[in-house]
User: What shape does this take?
Amino acid sequence: MMTNYSNNLLLKAKKYSWIFRLCPMIKEVYVVNSVANGTATEFSDIDLLVITENKMVLRTRLLLTIITQLLKIRVHGKKIAGRFCLSFIVDTRNSTLLSVMYENDTLLRDMLSTSVLIYSNSEKSNRSLYIVNVINFIIPEFIVRWHSNKAINRALSGNFKNPSIVISDSIFKFHENDKRRNK
Assistant: This one.
């Protein structure tokens, strides 16, 4: 049975799903963890699993960070409750998440089994491909790398217990307290 908080946060995620259309490289977006499995509280954020075109993970994260920050709906600092967490972004080559799964990883398996699809862009149009190419041109690699390094430095600064980080062209997984490591 879903809590009222879970229902409300899921509705909020669906309400803001229009922002994913602004990033044509996004293939699918899922709500995961406490909101999806119905256990959210008044302190919960909205964890998203974003699946992108191949090699577009870091640019997607940068664009989503900018958009959600401008809309004031992104987890930032101590502002967590009811905001979007952009800490799990993979491309279509890693959409099964096998590369970040531990042996007997029941938490990740549970996360995937209770995920709720809130956005899907299954169409491949010339316009989308054109926009992806424009985004690749407009956002230089050094800005993408700077943004990624900022996340790594933040996690390694010692402010977080048990950080779990995977950052590459195909996976961005950043979680400040990966409970799976404690299992």
